[in-house]
Every structure is written in C-alpha cells, then in structure tokens.
Amino acid sequence: MTSDVPQLFDKVLRRSYLTRSAGGRPPFFAQAMAAEIESRLNLILREFKKTLIFGPASGEVRARLAKLGCLGQILAAAPAREADVDLVFDDEAVPLADESLDCIISLFSLNSVNDVPGSLAQIRAALRPDGLFLGCLFAGRTLLELRDAWLAAEADITGGASLRVAPFADLRDLGSLLQRAGFALPAVDMDVTTVRYRDSVALMREIKTLGLQHALAERSRRPVTASLLARAVALYNERYRDADGRIRATVETAWIIGWAPHASQQQPLRPGSAKARLADVLRTEEVKLKGD
C-alpha cells in the first residue's frame, strides 16, 4: 500500500469490531455464505489443491465447504483474531508467497479496504497460473433505507449530516478493478435481497453483532444521543415499514470472479481477424456509414 492512498477506513477500529463479534455471530451468516460459494463452485467444475478462505467467519465457512472435496487443503484466515482460523493478517499487506495457492475466496473483506486495487494485486500474485479468485462484498444500494433515515434524522436534530453508513462499491467499477489487478476473464454478478426485521433497532443490532458496522476514518465523533436515535428509528419505520408492521432493508451483494492468467485460457481475437462478415451471418444487408 502506498502512502498516497486515501485512508477512508480506520483499520484499528475495524479490527476491534470484528474481534468483538467473533464467536457471537448467528449461524445463518456462515451458512448463507457457504451455500452461495458452493453454488458458484458447482458451475466452475474444477478441483483445486490448496485454497485460502479469508474474512469473518472463515473457519465456520471452511467447515461447511470441506465436504465438497474440490477445494483440496483449505486454510482459513481473517483480518482479526477469532476461533478456527489458521492466519490473521491485514488484507492490505497479504503475507502469502507468490504462486502459492490455487484458489482464494474473500468474504466481505474488501468492503473496508483502503487500497482495493493493491489488495487485489496481492491476491492475484499469490495465485498459481489459472488459479481462481472468488470474492463477495456489499455493493450498490445496500442499506439505502438506513442511510436515508440517519441523514434525515441528523438534518432534523442537528441541522447537519454525517455518514453513519459507509459507501459501497459500484458494480460497474468492480470488473475494471479486477482487470487493473491483472486478473483474466473477470466476471461480476449481483444478488439483490430484501431482508425484513421487526423494527430498525433489530436491524442495527444485527449489523453490530456481525461486526459489520462502518469504520470510517472521517466518522462523526459526536455521541449518538437518545433523541437522534429515536428520530432515526421513527423515520425508518415511517418510510420503510410494510403493511404487516415489519421494516425492510436492501442488501446488494456483488460476487466477483477472476483468474490468474494462463496460456490455456480463452483469448480475445485480434481486431480485424474475423473470417466472416456479421451481415452475412445475420443474412441482412450491410449499411455503410458516411466515410466508410
């Protein structure tokens, strides 16, 4: 990581959140991640000799994926100390030897990384040729309702506003970030889920239990007063409550895939190398533009 990379996230605070939540996360977190990873690996139809799973609850996810048999030896690592992990390291200073792994799976870790291109480049270097990188991160409009409620509440109570929900990556940027890091055959897809809760307080408690609350370096240092919290809760419930009384929250999860380059991979054709005209294939008349 270079010194000129903007420090958007407080890494010490982030580690403290994850450390505090370790061991207390609800089982659905690892279960849902393992199920999504399994569904994607089933489409790839490859076997790997050595795999690293990195992120919160990586040990639990490893236990659920071990039965697949396609990931070979599985190492579990995390950015903060927790049970059942083999390694603890900062995802902006990856201590992995070059070309030492066949598959790396990143679990909701890139959300709080200051130097995403740098982290991806280090992951890419740790993969053997034709090795797989599979990552997931929150993106797009995730928690748009919570962000809206906090901004409106602060405007009402203090006359100003500060970020209480971290910004998330834009789907359009993720593919280019993979290419910039040197990955071949990049692919990105998005899962959009609406999660419902008893009320907005239950949502905020779950985010804290998972250790996924924002750790922005430029966060407001003013304590959340009872009146501010009450106003945010009231606005959330007023704007995003369904007919049955439960509130909804949008979660957009981006899944990104890239491969370490290898000569066996499909290569794009050189411009002008086609042996047939598109018009002939489509059985239509070619319309020439002015200047052709």
Shape: globular
What is the count of structural domains?
1
How many strand segments? Answer: 7
Q: What number is the mean pLDDT?
A: 88
Report the top-level CATH class.
Answer: Alpha Beta
The CATH architecture comes to: 3-Layer(aba) Sandwich
What quaternary form is this?
single chain
Strand order of the largest sheet: 3-2-1-4-5-7-6
Major sheet size, sense and barrel closure? 7 strands, mixed
Low-confidence blocks of residues: none
Helix-strand pattern? HHEHEEEHEHHEHHEH
Helical run tally: 9
Specify the helix fraction band. 25-40%
How far apart are the termini? 48 Å
**CATH homologous superfamily heading:** Vaccinia Virus protein VP39
Explain this structure.
By secondary structure, the chain is α/β, with parallel strands linked by helices. Helix content is 35%, strand content 20%. The protein has helices at 11-21, 28-44, 58-65, 116-126, 144-157, 171-180, 200-209, 226-240, 278-282; strands spanning 50-54, 73-78, 87-88, 101-107, 127-138, 184-197, 247-259. A seven-stranded mixed beta sheet has the order 3-2-1-4-5-7-6.
